[in-house]
Amino acid sequence: MRHGEVHNPHGVLYGRIPDYHLSELGRKMAERVAEHVAGRDIVHLVTSPLERAQETMEPIAKTFGLTPDIDERVIEAANLFEGKKFGVGDGALRQPSAWWLLRNPWKPSWGEPYVQLVRRMRDAIETAREKAAGHEALIVSHQLPIWVVRSAVEGRRMLHDPRKRQCSLASLTSFTFHGDSIVSVGYAEPAKDLLPVKDAKKFTGGA
After folding, report:
1. Is 161 a member of any domain?
2. Residue 160 half-sphere exposure toward CB, CA atoms < 13 A
């Protein structure tokens, strides 16, 4: 699951910066997902250590009476633009000094390597699968980690247009296993009607 909407009045790329919390809308999104999954066979919960992820997990943990594990492996991707507004006309990309960071989009040169990101996410998913053996686990993470591990599972290249990620706020990306192998990938948006208009109109709803 991707976390809900974050209170970010200055519109910065907050990444791993602490003290970014869910907005009131984000909390409603979390409640909606808790209602959506209430009938599922979930026996194990995992969350990123960042506040927005833990706050998204709260109503789900309450629904199932479970204490979530905090797993550093599902944290947001590292990014050298963290703390800055990211845009061509009004953000960090106006500064020529930032252009060097964009030299290798395949890696990517501005942040955590995609291969490393996929590896840690796959490891975390495997641990959750083992702990929930025969049942279901739910992990709250972040858009880029979720999208790249899904892309790897579905055989897509890592280089992509961020605007086309199918991973909206409070969305659910599901991996179904048969034995040790992932046999299908699902996607759902239980809080779609709560998405901000600018996100709801996008192909992905992502932000």
Report:
1. yes
2. 18
Q: Are 171 and 187 in contact (CB under 8 A)?
A: yes
Q: What residue numbers bound the domain in which 174 lies? A: 24-200
Tens of pLDDT, residues 124-161:
999 999 999 999 999 999 999 999 999 999 999 999 99
Q: Report the distance separating Cα 204 and Cα 207, nearest Å.
A: 9
Please report whether residue 10 resides in a domain.
no
Calpha distance 167→188 (Å, rounded): 9
Q: CA-based Rg of the chain, rounded to a whole angstrom?
A: 17
Q: What is the CATH number of the domain that holds 160?
A: 3.40.50.1240
Beta bridge partners of 141: 2
E strand map for the chain: 42-47, 69-70, 136-140, 172-178, 181-188
Q: What is the pTM of this model?
A: 0.91
The three-state secondary structure class of 15 is coil
